[in-house]
Amino acid sequence: MKTEPYSNTEMNALIREALGSDPGYKIPSSLAEATIRKIERRLMWRELVIELSAKTGIVAGSLGILTGVLYWMGQNQLVKQIIGFGMKYKQLIVVLLASVFVIVLFDQLIFKYINRIKSNGLNTKLSRIG
Hints:
- The protein has helices spanning 8-20, 31-72, 76-88, 90-120.
- By secondary structure, the protein is mainly α.
């Protein structure tokens, strides 16, 4: 193997030889389309997850601000009652929050993903369901 730089004529000869010879394999004609579809799906998932994260942050932030305002306005007793209620029924609250999380996950991610696949005509296994 040559370690010194090639001259322009040598480089041109190597390029002509490489382009003129058969590589021994075939690139499928649908490679570009399949790659674009894969990138579209990844971008779609990223967009949906960011959207869900933003909505979750807005809800959690709003609840935090509400709690802070109630505490700041001297409604300590109300905040203590809410915390006491939460501690008393923590198993029920955990089950309800988990149920809400699963429902929101399906609504905001899975159903939107399937709907976008069907509307965009992406060729995936999910689009063949319906």
